[in-house]
Amino acid sequence: TANGQVVYSIAEETERGASVGNIAKDLGIDAATLSARKFRMITGSSKQYFNINASTGALSVNEPIDREQLCELKSACLLNYELVLENPLELYRMEFKVLDINDNSPIFPLSEYHINVPEFLSPGARFTLPTAQDLDEGTNSVQNYTLSLDKHFHLEMQARGDGSKYPELVLKKALDREQQATHRLVLTAKDGGDPPKSGDVPVIVTVLDTNDNAPEFEHSVYRASILENSPSGTLVVQVHATDLDEGPNGEVRYSFSNTTSADLQRMFLIHPHTGEVTVNGVLAVQRPLLEMLIEARDNGAFCMSSTAKLLVEITDVNNHGPEITITSLSSPIPEDAVPGTVIALLSIMDKDPGENGKVTCQIPDNLPFQLKPSLENYYSLVTSGLLDRELVSGYNITITATDLGSPPITTQKTLWVQISDVNDNPPVFSADTFDVFVEENNPLGAFLYQVSASDPDMGENGRVSYMLRNSTVAGSALASFLSVSLGNGSIYATRAFDFEQLRSFYFQVEAKDNGSPALSAAITVNVYISDQNDNAPAILYPTSQNGSVAVEVVPRLADEDYLVTKVVADDEDNAQNAWLSYHLAQSSDSTLFRLAPHSGELRTTRSLRSTDFLKHKVVVVVRDHGDPPLSSTVTVGILLADTLPQALPDFDDSGEPPPLLNATNIYLIVSLACVSCIFAAFLLFLAIVRLCRCRTCCCSSCCCPAAEYEKYCYSVHMLPSSHLPPDMLEVTGVGKLTHTYLYRASVGLG
Description:
The protein is mainly beta. The chain is built from seven helices and 53 strands. The strands form 17 sheets. The chain has a four-stranded mixed beta sheet. It has a four-stranded mixed beta sheet with strand order 8-14-13-10, with no helix packed on it. A hairpin with a 4-residue loop joins β28 (369-373) and β29. The N and C termini lie far apart (174 Å). One of its GO terms (cellular component) is plasma membrane. This is Protocadherin alpha-C1.
């Protein structure tokens, strides 16, 4: 084992299942990882002669090898295998040297060989005998020949110029055709195996009476060299043999010996008269040196022959282009593959020998890949830079292989290498923040906004889901305010917002992909709640308690523009929804008070008079500027008094002056009228009595002087209660009667 290559020797015809070695042990590989690393054996042979046990790494024979069938006449029979392992990708070369065993016997090309021998030949005449073929090599091939015993013939071995030996039949005693016309001999070929094997061929010698000279070649071995792409008809060599005989016995005809293979006889032609050997068809051979035997026969009645060897060297021309074979390909590859990652293993072969079979290989320079030579005729395609699937999702890699022939031949093969996605890109929002505006009092589940993030990754790595990051808003969990759709980022309200309680807040939405590990990004969303006119103005002053009317005391004779009170109100809404205006909705005396629409100040429009009612009531409406507007009212009772009374009077809720002729006042008036009528009748009665007395008096003047009459005559006055003298009769109104009526009655008695 050396440099990733291991060589085994195995005898041919080894039975199936026989152990060859342990590939894991020999290459230093953990046998337990063979299956996981997807090992496989690659060979150019049509049969799989060997097996590897995936558990132990034991290498055994899968198919018996016939060396002669596999390698024909090659001196060295080699089988080349490649062992490919993945994760990581590794390549080992295995060479099996098939050792020859003596499993073939020598075989003669003909089942029977005939020799015509003229009877007049002297002892020492030689005749070429057929050579046997043994498919075995070395000592297992033909080593010697023997001839059956005969008193006329014996066997001698001869050597050619190239060192090869061949048998010759030698006449040791003159023949007499009349005594024996035919001699039957047996030629035996033996190999050097242990035990040796042999092959026999009958040699029938016919004794002739004529033609005692055989043709002789000028050379025992002819050598020629031609190009492998030589066209049909190209002259290879011209052989020449001479026969000392005259006439037909001296005429020579040329042909290929029967020992020359049929394939070579089809590839070449020999002219029977001239001895010219020419190309016939395509030289479809892989051996650089071809060997043929040419036979020269005369035209005698009993023809004689001789043979010469023709060695033809096939000169290679660059007629084969490089062959690119993809031994292993890893596609797709992850985009985070580090430089130097092996992607493919290539086998590049050129059938031409020598320089014509040497190959250079390259790929375009603008790709993040490079080719590195591995074992002989193998290249590794590795990454040379960083990959980014989002920029380039795949590469068409054109591999160009050029041999060193003249002219060179170029072969191209294109690989499609797909880049697989890894989760190397987090989701990206289009902006850092989003502003959302929503009106208060929104319905539950109202759609607010939709955030969107993009992820250039593929599949699950690019599928984005959305969620709210945990936080609190106004002391409550964010989830009680909002929800977000996991799939499309739509944000919904889970409660109705109240501008007066919460005017704005912010939160974060997190976008996370489904890669492993997952990547995420967050965006801040600012929520601004816009106001609706949902709050009526609140009256802060004057205030009432227990449903009673707020009372303001005003001096009895207050001047014009006197500040009675100031209505103070507040609206929790915002902007124009909180702009307040003040209006008099109702007043017991519209000419007495006015209200400033913007400040809410209630002032007198004129100076108060003594004849003005003591109690007044106004209803103030406070209205905002919303759409639609909302309002609140407050009722203010106004008491005209110079000092604060101990008990405040009641104020009519209607806010209008009390009617003079209500039921109670009518009752009082009727009562007073009756009393007055009785009193008047009484006075009338007294007056009548007085008049009667005056008539009876002597002097009328003394009876009823004018001054006294004036003094004592009765009269009735209606005076204010503040001018009530002690002797006046005071009748105070009750119920809705708000004034005191005073009556003075006097009777002058004479």
